[in-house]
Fold Transcriptional regulator MntR.
Amino acid sequence: MTTLTEENYIKAIYHLGKHGTENVSTNAIAQEMDTKASSVTDMVKKLAEKDLVNYKKYQGVSLTQTGVLTAVNIVRKHRLWEVFLVNKLNFSWDEVHDVAEQLEHIKSPKLIDELDAFLDFPTHDPHGDPIPDKDGHFSKLDKVKLSKVAVNTTCTCVGVDDSSSDFLKYLDKHNIALGSKIKVMATEPFDESITILINGVHLSVSKHVSNNLFVRAN
Amino acid sequence: MTTLTEENYIKAIYHLGKHGTENVSTNAIAQEMDTKASSVTDMVKKLAEKDLVNYKKYQGVSLTQTGVLTAVNIVRKHRLWEVFLVNKLNFSWDEVHDVAEQLEHIKSPKLIDELDAFLDFPTHDPHGDPIPDKDGHFSKLDKVKLSKVAVNTTCTCVGVDDSSSDFLKYLDKHNIALGSKIKVMATEPFDESITILINGVHLSVSKHVSNNLFVRAN
DNA sequence: AATAATTTTTAGATAACTCTAAAAATTATT
DNA sequence: AATAATTTTTAGAGTTATCTAAAAATTATT
C-alpha cells in the first residue's frame, strides 16, 4: 500500500521525467513538491526500498515498472474525477485541480471503474489530456494546438492551454466549448489568424486563440 | 483546519455520545476507534486546545458547538457520498461504507453543495439515516421499523438494519427497494407477521423482515 | 471506610515525514 | 587540472500520532 505522501512523490517523478522514464534530479522534485532536497532524498530512499523507483546516490531517480503503473493509476483517477467535476457538478476547467488532487487518492477499484462507466468511458479530461484505461494504456490520438491543424480539416475542441478567465469568457461568447466541432477554413499568413467554421458560423480567430486551444482529430 | 485523524475522533465522539452532547469515556472512544486509551487521552487534549471538545481529566469528553458543527458536516458529506455511490455508481447498501469513510474527508464546500444539487437534495441516505442540510439541520421525520407502523398506513422504504446479502436478496426477490411504497394491511398477533401491499401485490412478511426494514411516514 | 478492580492519565519510546545545517559528491569555471 | 559553485546526501532534531508500562484517580466490593 502506498501512502498519500508516497503517491505525491511518484506523481511528481512521473510528470517531471517524461512519464517516469527519464532520470529526475532531487532538486527538481523538491521544487515541484515545494519541499527541501533533504526530504526528497529521504523519501526517494524509502520508495527505492519499496521498488517503486530506481535510485543511485547522486544520479537522480526514475520510476520502476511498478512505479509507472502506480503513477498512471493516479493520473487515471485524477482525470476521471476532473471529468466528473466539470460534466456533472458544474465546475469550470480551472476550478477542478485542487479537488481532483484530493479525490485521486481515494482507494477503491470499484469506485473508479463505476465512475468511468458513469461518465461513459471518457478518453480525455477537460484539459484535453488523455485518460489511461484500466490497464494503463493511453489513447493514441494526442491533442494538438488548433494552429497546427491543416486547412479543410475538422477537429474537436478538447481543452485550453491559457485558462485565464478572460480567455474562457471569449470562448464562451463565441460558443466554443468542450466537444465543439471546428473546421479550419483558411489561414492568413499575414497575421497568423485563421478562419474557422464552428456551429455553422464562420469566425476569424487570432494567433493567440489558435495557439491556446487544444483540439483532436476525428 | 482539522486533520483526518482529528475528524475521525470527532466523528466517534459524536456517534457515541448522542450527537456529541453526552459525555463519552476514554475507553469507549478507544474501542470505537480501535486504538489505546492513552492515544485517546493525547488526542482529546489536542482537540480541547482547538476548542472542539469539552474535557476535564477523568470526566470524559463531549463536543463543543464547533465540534458538533464539524461532526455534522462530516456526517453530511458521508451520507451524500453514500447516496451518490448507491444511486449513481451501482454500489449496494453494504458496499458503500468504506469508500464513504474516505470521501467524507475531502475538503471543498463547492464540491459538496454541487453534489447535493446533483443528487436532487436527498433527505436520507441509503440506510434511511437523515442527511443534515448546509446549516446542519436534520429532517424532522425519522425512520422507524416497519413493525412499528400502524395498520392502514402507507410509508416509504428507506433502509435496512440487517444488511446481510441473504436479506437483501429476499428484498430484491419481492421487489422491495429503496423508495418502495408499502401499505400495512394487517398484523398477525399469532407469529407477529404482517401483511403489506407493495407494488399492488399483497405480501406476508415475517417478524424478522418487519423488524429489519426501515420506513418513513409520507 | 478500607481495599480491590477498573479506568484514565502520564512518561518515555517508536514510526513517518519534515526541517536546518554541515559534509560529501558532482558539475562548472578559470 | 585545480578551484569554485552547485547539487545531493547525511546527521541531528522537531512534529504528529501511535504504543507499552507504570502511576494516579475513580468506581465497585466487601
Observations:
- The radius of gyration of chain B is 20 Å.
